[in-house]
């Protein structure tokens, strides 16, 4: 299976835009000596690929995700294979919510990035504490994730009634994409002791469909 498909063409530009934002806002320049962790890299490795496109001389990219993600994904895309072979990228099977699985990285990561994934994490405060635990002093974190996603408001409403619980296992996305979120991320991060060098930016981006078949 070649991962470089239509989905790749859709996701990579967005991930590239995110990495460029990190570059500008956090003043990233030469990363040749940096260890960068891609937190919850997902199906298409979009953020890892974007890092390697923008910073081909990066010291190392650690792509971290849950064991079943690594087990079930193919790494056969030729555009990505060379980075695996030359060890520019390594894969780590660990949970960002479980401190003991991350101890090998404690205080060793220069930069942590996460694109389109943090909304999938249940225990967000625990995850942020573990991110802080892995960073070197003066390290940087860049994250892009959904705060509110109206498309998922109605599944959450259905789930709240209880009668639909039997179908929950058939759609693993339901617990992860909030219809609305009241999590106060900035306060949470400041309590953990993050220094907010770049303020949280909230943007509203409407999703437009040509017809009902695209929904």
TrEMBL record:
Record domain Methyltransferase type: where: 80-141
SUPFAM superfamilies according to UniProt: S-adenosyl-L-methionine-dependent methyltransferases
UniProt-listed CDD domains: AdoMet_MTases
Sample GO molecular function, one term: S-adenosylmethionine-dependent methyltransferase activity
Domain of life (superkingdom): Eukaryota
Listed Pfam families: Methyltransf_11
InterPro entries found in the cross-reference section: Methyltransf_11, SAM-dependent_MTases_sf
Protein name: Methyltransferase type 11 domain-containing protein
Gene: NCL1_34228
